[in-house]
Amino acid sequence: MAQAKAVAKFWITTTDLLDHVLKYEKRMQLAEPTKDGRIVHRLVSNLFCRYVQLCRSLERCYDQTLQVQKRAVIQQLLEAGQARMFELRTKLQEIELSEFVYVDGALQEQHLIPDDVLAVRPCYFPARRPDELQALLDAQKLPPFIEPGSDAEDGSSSDESEQPEEEQVPVGKGINRPVVKRDRRKERLQAALNLITAHERARQARVRQTNFRLHPDRYYPKPIDEEIVDVPYEFFYRPGQFMLYPVKRTVYNWDFRMKKKDVVHFAYYAPPGWEEQTVRLASVRWPDAKELALKQQAEEEAAAELAQAEAAKRLEEALERIRLNRAAAKIQHYWRKFKALKTQKKHRFDRSKFLGLFDDYEPKLGDALAVAEVRAARRARQPEFDRSFVAAIADEKARILRIRGPALLEDITDLVRAWFREWYDETLAFDLIPEPFQGGTVLIVRGETLTPLEYLALERQKQLDKLKTPEQRKKEADAKKAAKEREQEKKREEKARLKELAREKRARERKEGKTYDFTEPEFMTNAYLTLEETLARYRKDWAFVNELDNLQDLPIMEWITLDKFAEVHQELHAEVHELLKSERELLQMALCKDERMKYKPPKPKKPPRAKGAKGKKRKEPIDPTADLSVESILNELVERNVLKTCRKRTFEDYIGDFNYAAFERRNRLEQDPPPGMGEVRAILQSYLYGMGPLDAPKPKSLCLVGPSGYGKTLLLEAICNETGSTLFDLSVDTCGPIEPNNMAYFLQLVLRAARLLQPSVLAIEGVHRAFYKKVPQPEQPLDPAKLGKHLFKLIVKQLKPEDKVLLVGTSDQPWVAKVGPLKKCFDKILLLPRPDYGSTVLLWQYALRRFPTVPRDLNLSALAKVTTGYSAGQILECARQVLHIRRRMQFGRKPLQVGELLDHFLAGATPQYPIADKEYEKFVKWHRKVDKLAKQRAKVMRERQLLAEQMAAKAAGAKK
């Protein structure tokens, strides 16, 4: 209950945020048109940051809202908000002429951090397929995309590879029993560990025996009476307590003499045989002076003894207090020393952590996990509310049909029959009932059909047209034709004028620069208008609904009743149309019989056909896989090793930092800085929003280009794992056994399966092999060109915006491929950057963090500075090979040094070096050829450099 109230309050806050963003956008539309790109970049980036925050709030509301009608409104707002956010990002990319945009200025204005504007994993990931399709997919035994034991491209050693694998071994007659494969390496390590432990125990025993023989007085235990000196103790005994040590229990202060009990003075008690006797009074004798003196002397001696005893007792208590104070002082001294050392160590740790030497590797995730579990439990209830809502709709429609259906049917019939009577009374004719595709009997009820007076006017005009001479008819036809030609000429002139204006505008923009007008459609898009209309309609419809009272998230039945009433009304109109159409024919036949006219049945009207762009009938392509069932398609693809599974990877496994200096270098220093690895991760996550159930823009295909070891395969597996996509392997090796004549059928089969099992990813490792300029001799038997020949026509071109299918290719030698066909097949081509200093530090931290015994204060700054430029695969492989189990066992007596990691790169049999600048420049040059924005930015940078050189030359000439 409390959670439902919190979600309702958060939704109210989100609507206020949406209203604030729309007001800001309206204020931005009042800005004057400008040519200054920096002003436009500042305004658009500010708005982009606001939309990112808005979309995150809307996504959380959509994730936690159970009320179905309100969730539909939130979904519409979320789709429009995401579309608007991507439009603004595209506008920033056009301004900066780069796929990677930087909004540091807007972050400073709004007091945000870079993580606040990054693309996050949507709540609807991974997407859910229908249960029957998921069951068919789970029943298949799919091979792995990366074979276990093979060197992955990213060079990371997964922990699963060291675990024993289960394989099916045939036993008996057709019985497959899973057995555990022996891990020989693990057994050898365990045997070596046992041998080392046994030798160490034997060595310790020999040392102990020698010590007892040579130094008995030091190592043999002392007697108890010598060790325990002046330690007061007392033994006690509890009944039923187990004796920990076999000792003699003796109490030394026990009084063995029985004490006599005075039972005489006890009230209400008389011992047996007791006789009370009368006490005789004796004569009183007063003491003399000698006795009094002796008595006084005895009392003085007793007082002196008592005073002496009390003084000795006070002295003993003082000595005891002194001893206790000394003990307490010593305890406090050591305790303060311990606390000071502990505080100093904590200060040193906090200072090192603040300076970035290492971070805290023990995050407290308990609260975050608890919140995630609560949200997941609430999210899991959404299908239950959806089923209840559908059941409520069906029940309400049945109730309306049962209660109101007969009366509605009778009312519609009476209205149409009255329309018949009106036409007969005024025109002695019966008009045709409109066809259902034209509106049907609904037009009659609304009064939107032809009136009897209009019908009589048309009939009169037809009679007058029959009396016209052929010359008059020809003259009118020529006039109509001339008017039509003039109208078409005006349209052509207007089209040519708009085309000329657009051409002049483009020429003016090339010469003077583009003018940005915030009132043009490129800024006021359909997504912005949809947000305004949806928010206005929501506030109008929900104005009288108190959402805080509906904590059970029940549907609003009044709206369901109105919708179903309109739907029932339409269905009854269709029934009335069929009934009264035949009745109208009977009336028309009777009228023709009375008027002695020939009855002509009306010609049935056909709905207009859907035409193509040029007015021709659209020809649907022939699908050769239409007769195949889903199960047969999956079986065939599994036999061809196309359907595969991938490792559980996420985008967090792609370790890399952002380029924090890119904003200043690009916008203030007029430079072209390379993006960081964090920007690549963020841009890829933003591309995947359209792979979920919501409508969001996404590319049809993307290509990841970079040297080996830069994480291309890791990113491909992360895309599949994050979106829950089915992986189709279309690499050249997989397509090699397929005949060239069957390649078209095979790709159509793959595309149909991808649409059935969507979201799907079509992966092509080494995509440059499908577009070879010259096929190498070893690969000619595979005929790799047969894949590239059909890839665009049968895969990329057939993909629709609503398809949750993505084509992903990777390449480490793109320059060996034909540029044109490769560029045509991929919408987005990303060049993976080289690791900079910040990314290298994070890579070393990740590589060493997996080994708990590695010291956390290792000098990673110097190590990262020296190894900047090495690929992620090289760094991870270095940590795996250097920190083997034997080296980790030696950390106690031989701490890890940075030089050991460097020796792996330089002191081996074959030294390893990072990719050379000349080699990486080949990737950069090729990327500038195929990427439109990169090509334009390179041109702008050349113009700026030329202008700077001219200005420097002029300044040098002026000084001379």
From TrEMBL:
Coiled-coil blocks: 292-332
Keywords: Coiled coil
GO molecular function: ATP binding; ATP hydrolysis activity
Domain AAA+ ATPase: 698-836
Keyword set includes Coiled coil: yes
Compositional bias segments (type: Basic residues): 599-619
Region (Disordered): 146-177, 467-513, 597-622
Acidic residues: compositionally biased ranges: 150-168
PANTHER family cross-referenced by the UniProt entry: IQ MOTIF CONTAINING WITH AAA DOMAIN 1 (PTHR14690:SF0)
The protein's name: AAA+ ATPase domain-containing protein
Source organism phylogeny: Eukaryota, Metazoa, Ecdysozoa, Arthropoda, Hexapoda
